[in-house]
Amino acid sequence: GPVAVGGLRGALYPPAGGWLQSHVSRALPLQQCHRRAQAQRLRSCLHSAVSLAWGSFTCCMAASVTTLNSYTKTVIEFRHKRKVFEQGYREEPTFIDPEAIKYFRE
């Protein structure tokens, strides 16, 4: 039967061996199994969280790169059009017909 153990609590503990030891020896593998399952669930949850974070980061970066490319393309096109327009404007002949000048002078 139980043996009285001294100390502050004065609790009763069963002797070594017997039903308690058999229950404890069965409980330890179960606890280890539960811990393993908990760790596996935690890893799975962490993997999902990391995957979601990387997915969000990838979408965000793709959107920003697309926007930057579109902006850069627009700026380059406008610069090119302005340059062509300015060159065309400068190359336009601005001569005045000398005969017309003579006509107005007379």
Could you give a quick summary of the protein structure above?
With 106 residues, the chain is mainly alpha-helical. It contains 2 helices and 2 strands; from the N terminus they run E-E-H-H.
Account of the 3D structure:
The protein is mainly alpha-helical. It has one domain (14-105). It has two helices and two strands, in the order ββαα. It has helices spanning 18-91, 98-105; strands at 3-4, 12-13. The protein has a two-stranded antiparallel ribbon. Strand 1 (3-4) and strand 2 form a beta hairpin. The N and C termini lie far apart (143 Å). The model is unreliable at 1-10 (pLDDT under 50).
Q: Termini, distance in Å?
A: 143 Å
Number of domains: 1
Q: What composes the largest sheet?
A: 2 strands, antiparallel
How does the overall form come out from the CA principal axes? rod-shaped
Number of helices: 2
User: What percent of residues adopt helix (DSSP H or I)?
Assistant: over 70%
The Cα radius of gyration reads 44 Å
Q: What amount of the residues lies in strands?
A: under 5%
**Number of E-state strands:** 2
Q: Strand sequence of the main sheet, in spatial order?
A: 1-2
Which structural class do you get from the secondary structure elements? Answer: mainly alpha
Task: Average the pLDDT over all residues and give the rounded result.
Answer: 75
Q: What is the chain-wise order of helices and strands?
A: EEHH
Low-confidence stretches: 1-10
